[in-house]
Design a protein that fits this description.
397 residues; alpha/beta; Rossmann fold; 2 domains; eight-stranded mixed beta sheet; six-stranded parallel beta sheet; 14 helices; 16 strands
């Protein structure tokens, strides 16, 4: 069987959890099937090619170079008029459809598996439909329901029923009616699309994202004696530095934490980098790392006591939760979207979304009672809801 995996970004251009997920599963998938990755313009150009990353070296990669005004990874610095035109092309333009059809004709896959296509144009769905190839789609956000894929406008929640979302859905619904199978990493994301009358005749599956390979759980069941003896606890935030990910909520909560026996490590990049850097300069407990390589992030997970996930948008199934679980790190998470399908009060701490006060109180309680951390870790070992990469790929196939 030959599978064509389509996503708007691919190594070395990684923006979010979808790219992390694909890096995680594609080496295993390519062992069992003939796999081709179809993506947009990459910052390291060359099409067709094989991926230069050691773990992905056998992957055949095809770039579609005529999809939009500029590639998604190059969105910063463009004037507002150009960005609005970019979105119009993404919604209505068909620039990349012919290139996709040529690529599919050359590759002859048995199955097309789409992920995020923002920047490749929604017309891609029409191209796949006209090809007659079986189409599987995995939902990663609400892009088919709203051009605001996280259902937020700044800090304001925008419901799927908003009038401009309804108008938008008249197009996206017609483009997706030929999808034969739809996969939701959470029941929440699947139910949200069904409620808006998407995928009426498609087969629907919940397939949890895999527990990303990292340190084994059984090595991290207890705190080291230096921490139980009053040493500094390490809290980690890793993700996009954007309002939707709750980094401002986290910074405000840190201000309210009076206990000094903690260090708050922040990893990521985004529009709020300067805000985080300023906070780090004013509070020695905050350690801002900026962008960190996969190896460096692995080390941070390994040395962390608690992962903090304060997101304020209705999340699907965040890949950082998979990474934290794989490293045996319990999570203090906002109770949003599909997060509660993974994190519970048994294996972590659920907090009120957007409440810095509730997060601060939870952080204080953990610092005051560090023995709660190994208890949560044991529960995580016993009840980890995520499959291994091998099991995930077996179910996917």
């Amino acid at each position: 069987m030959k599978v064509a995996v389509i996503n708007n970004l691919f190594y070395p251009d990684e923006y979010g959890g979808t790219e992390t997920y694909l890096r995680c599963i594609l080496p295993e998938l390519s062992k069992r099937t003939d796999t081709v990755v179809i993506t947009g313009r990459r910052s390291a150009s060359g099409s067709p090619t094989t991926c230069s990353d050691d773990n992905q070296s056998s992957l055949h990669i095809r770039e579609l170079t005529d999809t939009n005004l500029y590639p998604l990874w190059n969105w910063r610095g463009h004037p507002m008029v150009e960005r609005l035109l970019w979105h119009a092309v993404d919604l209505w333009g068909g620039l990349g459809e012919a290139s996709l059809l040529d690529c599919l004709q050359e590759e002859q896959p048995d199955v097309v598996h789409t992920h995020n296509i923002r920047g490749l144009s929604l017309s891609m769905f029409d191209g796949i439909k006209s090809s007659g190839i079986s189409h599987v789609h995995t939902l990663h956000d609400f892009f088919l329901i709203s051009p605001l894929s996280n259902l937020l406008l700044g800090d304001i929640p925008i419901p799927p029923s908003a009038i401009f979302n309804k108008l938008y859905q008249t197009r996206t619904r017609s483009l997706t009616d030929s999808i034969r199978t739809v996969i939701g990493p959470s029941q929440f994301i699947l139910d949200g699309h069904v409620a808006q009358h998407f995928f009426g005749t498609a087969r629907k599956y919940v397939l949890r994202l895999p527990s990303a390979p990292a340190t084994s759980l059984d090595r991290r069941l207890v705190l080291g004696p230096e921490r139980l003896g009053g040493g500094e606890l390490m809290f980690l935030f890793a993700g996009s530095l954007e309002r939707s990910k709750g980094v401002l909520v986290f910074l405000d909560a840190i201000k309210q934490v009076r206990n000094r026996k903690a260090a708050f490590h922040i990893v990521g990049r985004g529009t709020l980098e300067k805000t985080v850097l300023s906070a780090a300069r004013n509070d020695p407990r905050i350690r801002f790392h900026g962008y960190v390589s996969r190896e460096g992030l692995h080390d941070l997970y390994t040395n962390s006591d608690v992962f903090v996930f304060p997101s304020v948008w209705p999340e699907n199934a965040p890949m950082v939760i998979s990474e934290a679980f794989a490293a045996g790190v319990p999570i203090a998470a906002a109770n949003v979207g599909g997060v509660k399908e993974l994190v519970s009060d048994g294996n972590g701490w659920l907090i009120r979304p957007g409440s810095s006060r509730d997060l601060a109180r939870t952080l204080e309680e953990i610092i005051e009672d560090p023995q709660s951390i190994p208890i949560k870790r044991r529960a995580l070992l016993e009840t980890n809801p995520l499959p291994t990469v091998q099991d995930h790929v077996s179910r996917l196939l």
